[in-house]
UniProtKB/TrEMBL annotation:
The name this protein goes by in its record: Long-chain fatty acid--CoA ligase
Record domain AMP-dependent synthetase/ligase: where: 10-367
Cited InterPro entries: AMP-bd_C, AMP-bd_C_sf, AMP-binding_CS, AMP-dep_synth/lig_dom, ANL_N_sf, ATP-dep_AMP-bd_enzyme
Keywords from the named record: Ligase
SUPFAM superfamilies: Acetyl-CoA synthetase-like
């Protein structure tokens, strides 16, 4: 069994059921499977060989997911690429992953062409609409008339995808997964969130992101559920889609929930929503509470993992939100987790250590990065680089990235703790904290704040607000106000960029 087997089975079980809809284009399971087969057979005729890599440099769309499953059926390995990247960054990924072909949106054709620098293995650029540049192929031109199942044997042990890390520092690394590892992620999410075939999924986050791709979209196909895909995130469109399609399941990063909560005016019928997932970045408890109130369901799940784990890691179940809100949670299914010292010994409750993971969803390796792969593991445990604590009940809480921890006057300051306090202030939309060099203290805590629209913050009042909730050494000594915080595609704040801009 491989990742495409559930699609074939569901096309046979309920061929007329809605599989995917996007921008007015709707496919039943039978129609979706046939479109996948036509493209897969076309790729084989074009010369794709088993195990070769194909890039997906596209925004969310029905074409993205058709190409995804077609590449797998043709025996290829999918390399999703962040559509926000510029030509040199795309060129690096195409070359490092050894892509033979790449699919791109029409609006990204120029970037793709500039990334084809002649130093990589790229043979074909396939444009979703009509190609405007010489030598590029259009999607329609490679489609086969044959909609039968491709004659390609694909095993669960065959490589399926290379997911590039967010790249908050340095060059992104490609995490390699086979079909079985991704199907294990499907099982994790299916069991963890009690999802079912009659669910209707709304896909808002980028599909090149591991949580949206493996945790939600391929899981929806695995179940035989229905999917509504949005090309871009818009809070009003999100609320409208929930009402129109009777959405039952969706996942969002904290910034998405925050934007949705800012929508004023029309009241939307959100009663269909059953399950909400949040993650990819810390979400302030106050924001979670407001989201729970808006959607009227207590089925909220905090997902705390990383790309290299499939994603996998820990999750906070709905029943634990009342007593453990703010924690990451306990281990996902098929996953072991620990918080350890530098010597890989378990920390005591309340102590800070490194969050490590072992399980059936973990990547095989960093593709063509043997030394980094070796450094990423210790006796089979994936070293995440996240600092965490574990309480007496076994709940793990991420407190910071190793690289983002601030040491001020010899005391450790964990930016997540400070940010949660700042984000609970009624006049603050969102905030970040960083450490900057200081002759006296080594580092000084700096708060970067985005205030809510048309509100002016009183800095002294903010400091007083913090002093009631934080020890004095944790309170930012300086505040900087900005209109937006820089983020990567996963929703994580780019603190290295803030440090570069402010220092």
């Amino acid at each position: 069994m491989n990742l495409t087997t559930p699609l074939v089975l569901n096309a046979n079980r309920h061929p007329d059921k809605m599989c995917v809809t996007c921008e007015g284009r709707t496919y039943s399971y039978q129609q979706f499977n046939e479109e996948v087969n036509k493209l897969a057979n076309g790729l084989i005729q074009l010369g794709l060989k088993h195990g070769e890599k194909i890039g997906l440099f596209m925004k969310n769309s029905d074409h993205f997911v058709i190409a995804l499953y077609a590449i797998w059926k043709a025996g290829g390995v999918v390399v999703p690429i962040n559509f926000r990247l510029v030509a040199p960054e795309v060129a690096y990924i195409l070359e490092q992953s050894e892509c033979k072909m790449v699919f791109c949106d029409a609006g990204l054709e120029d970037i793709t062409a500039n990334a084809d620098n002649g130093h990589n293995s790229l043979e074909h650029i396939i444009v979703q609409q009509e190609a405007k540049l010489h030598g590029h192929l259009s999607w329609a031109s490679i489609l086969s008339d044959d909609c039968s199942e491709p004659r390609m044997v694909v095993l669960n042990t065959d490589n399926a995808q290379i997911l590039y890390t967010s790249g908050t520092t340095g060059r992104p690394k490609g995490a390699l997964f086979d079909h079985q590892r991704v199907m294990n992620v499907n099982m994790n999410f299916l069991v963890m969130k009690s999802m079912a075939a009659d669910d209707v999924f709304l896909h808002l986050a980028p599909l090149f992101h591991s949580a949206q791709l493996n945790g939600f979209f391929t899981t929806a196909i695995y179940l035989g559920a229905s999917s509504v895909i949005h090309r871009d995130f818009d809070p009003v469109s999100t609320l409208e889609a929930i009402e129109e399609y009777g959405i039952t399941v969706f996942f969002g990063v904290p910034a998405m929930y925050n934007a949705i909560l800012q929508v004023q005016g029309k009241q939307y019928n959100l009663s269909s929503v059953r399950v909400c997932g949040y993650g990819a970045a810390p979400m302030a408890p106050a924001l979670v509470e407001r989201a729970v109130e808006l959607f009227g369901t207590d089925q909220f799940y905090n997902l705390c993992g990383l790309t290299e784990a499939g994603p996998g890691g820990v999750f906070l179940a709905p029943e634990d939100h009342k007593t453990k809100l703010g924690a990451g949670g306990k281990a996902m299914f098929l996953t072991n987790v620990r918080v350890v010292t530098d010597d890989m010994e378990n920390v005591k409750p309340g102590e800070v250590g490194e969050f490590v993971i072992k399980g059936e969803t973990i990547m095989k390796e960093y593709y063509r990065r043997p030394e980094e792969t070796q450094r990423a593991f210790s006796d089979g445990w994936l070293l995440t680089g996240d600092m965490a604590t574990v309480d007496e009940d076994g709940f793990i809480t991420i407190v910071d990235r190793k690289k983002d921890m601030i040491i001020s006057g010899g005391e450790n300051v964990y930016s997540v703790e400070v940010e949660q306090v700042l984000n609970s202030h009624p006049q603050i939309l969102e905030a970040a904290t960083i450490g900057l060099p200081d002759e006296k203290w080594g580092e000084t805590v700096v708060g970067i704040i985005v205030s809510k629209e048309n509100l002016t913050l009183n800095e002294e009042e903010v400091k007083n607000f913090c002093s009631e909730r934080l020890a004095a050494y944790k309170i930012p000594k300086k505040f900087i106000y900005t209109e937006v915080l820089p983020r990567n595609a996963s929703g994580k704040i780019l603190k290295y960029q803030l440090r570069e801009e402010i220092k």
